Amino acid sequence: MSEPVAETDALPKLAVRNVGKSYGDAIVLERVSLDVAPGAFCTIVGASGCGKSTFLRMLLSQETPTRGEILLDGEPLPGEPTPDRGIVFQRYSVFPHLSVEDNLILATEFERSFLTGRLFGSTRRKAREAVSETLEKIGLAAARKRFPTQLSGGMQQRLAIAQALLKRPSVLLLDEPFGALDPGIRLDMHALLLDLWQELGMTIFMVTHDINEAFKLGSRVLVFDKTRHDPHAPERYGATITYDLPLDQKTRATVPEPEQLFGTAEARPN
Amino acid sequence: MRLINRSPGRVVAFTLVALPFAATVIAYAVASHYRRLENPADKLLPSLEQMGATFWRMAFVPDRRTGDLLLWVDTFDSLWRLGIGVGLATAIALVLGILIGFLPHARTMLAPYVAAISLIPPITILPILFIMVGLGETSKVMLVTLGTAPVMTRSIAQAVIDIPKELVIKAQTLGANTWHMIVRLVLPQVLPKLITAVRLGLVPGWIFLISAEAIASTSGLGYRIFLVRRFLAMDVILPYVLWITLLAYILDQLLLMLSRRAFPWHHMQGESL
Fold first, then answer.
1. DSSP B121
2. CA-closest candidate to residue A12, choices A34, A42, A41
3. Chain A environment of B186 (Cβ under 8 Å)
4. Residue A115 DSSP one-character state
5. A88 near A160, Cβ under 8 Å?
6. What would the pLDDT profile of B68-125 be if each residue is shown by its tens digit?
């Protein structure tokens, strides 16, 4: 499903219409518009503080746009996080008080036990058995009884990704998920993520500060930056999408230099 | 090596721990010795032997008037009051703390109220309690509860607020409703901190217990030391103070052990005193 089918082209998976976000007088984002086809892998890059994480949090309904609207499958986004959008954060992504396998049966427990959110006895044993295949796939089968603090950073993020996919979300949001990992581990995580994307075909939005990662993984790269800049009032103008680059096999190979993507506002004479 | 990078070995550590305690005992023994040289009947600094003998009598010789073993009756009564009082405070703190920390409406309504209540000096409530519920057990237990619950509530509420937002969001994307999040995320995350709150709450808890017993009681550790004060019976008071300190220390260590046993994941994240 990595290639969007023609008929779904008519209805974008996600449509962002003239969205702006400000905190008091500080404008973070302005006039962001975007249509994303189902199954796209959008990577989002930009300088620190350009609002790319804010944008992701709005897609998650963790924050609401100050103006404009975001449509998911043609419907306005719900006002709170829902299981149709999975999330992986850079830190605090898994539950530290639950073992690896209990982190993975949590969604089942919520679904099956309205009163206690907890399974007991044989039902719990069955639920734990049911995640064995997932554990195998993310290489945590041997660590299933351990607590997250006993895992390496890479193992924790593999668990976080598996957990985010438990409810089969049609949209997966990743907020600098590999930012704290070693380069070698990062490559493994790229492979795992691309595999899962091919297999499950969800639409992915991934914020990263690594341009190479953005061009390697994405089917589309979105660059956030400020187009207008007031040196006396840096908060006067917000960032928007300055480049929207669809990637194919050929364009993927040539990663532009950061200077080519960022800093348009600074370069412009006032 | 710099001082901050050197840590004591086993023997040195043991010596260092024992040193201030030993110094205190020796200083007392010396002072007591010289006072009794001047006046063998001195009551202010009784000898260690005398205190030991008195303590033995309190613990194992039935009282002439009542036939009770006074130390154990006092200890049982005091611990019972403290246990009920702090237990109630813990239950209140857990419920209110989670409501205030997790539900915006409850926070809006209750946070200023609890903050205001926690500023009332609890001991000023004591006469009100004596007038309203009498001099019995209820007023003493209630003083301990009222004295410890507000601060414990505030620390639990803060602990709930400090739960990383990421975890709350993640739980919602896994299909949790508010109740699910309270029982599966908030409760397990704050329980270790509840134990810490109980350990800290026990400190003022003891103060309020002893105060209430000193003012109106017929039993209890606080009652006893304020009773014998009239006879300058330092040979009872000093061992009782040590005994109370020992009880407080044991309670504290038991709670720490419970926390380590029940929440290993919490103690993996860092050192705890």
1. -
2. A34
3. none
4. T
5. yes
6. 999 999 999 999 999 999 999 999 999 999 999 999 999 999 999 999 999 999 999 9
- At A87-117, the pLDDT tens digits run 999 888 899 999 999 999 999 999 998 888 8
Q: How far is CA B104 from CA B100, B187, B189, in A?
A: 7, 17, 19
* Residues B2-30 pLDDT 10s: 999 999 999 999 999 999 999 999 999 99
Asked if the C-beta of A146 comes within 8 angstroms of chain B's C-beta atoms, the answer is no
CB contact under 8 A, B174 and A110: yes
- ipTM, two decimals, is 0.87
How do beta strands A67-72 and A75-76 pair? antiparallel
Using N-to-C axis directions, what is the helix angle for B187-215 and B221-228, rounded to 10°?
30
Considering only CB atoms, A97 lies closest to which of B166, B172, B189, namely B189
Coil, helix or strand for B188? helix
Strand, helix or coil at B70? helix
Chain B neighbours among A 190-219 (CB < 8 Å)?
Answer: none
User: Please, are residues A48 and A202 in contact by the beta-carbon 8 Å criterion?
Assistant: no
Helix and strand element counts for chain B (H, E): 12, 0
CA distance B170 to B187: 16
Neighbouring C-beta atoms of residue A260, cutoff 10 Å: 12
Q: Are strands A203-207 and A41-46 parallel, antiparallel or unpaired?
A: parallel
3-state DSSP assignment of residue A244: strand
Q: Is B180 in Cβ contact with A82 (below 8 Å)? A: no
Neighbours of B110 (CB within 10 A): 18
DSSP string, A168-188: --SEEEEESTTTTS-HHHHHH
Q: CB pairs below 8 Å between A and B: how many?
A: 81
Tell me which chain B residues have a C-beta less than 8 angstroms from the C-beta of A111.
Answer: 175
CA separation (Å) from A99 to A11, A149, A203, B230, B263? 41, 10, 29, 59, 12
d(C-alpha B153, C-alpha B158), whole Å: 9
Residue B26 sits at φ, ψ, to 5 deg, of -65, -45
For residue B45 the two structure tokens come to: 């600094």
Write the DSSP assignment of A35-50 as a string of letters.
Answer: EE-TT-EEEEEE-TTS
Name the residue type at position B246.
L
Confidence (pTM): 0.86
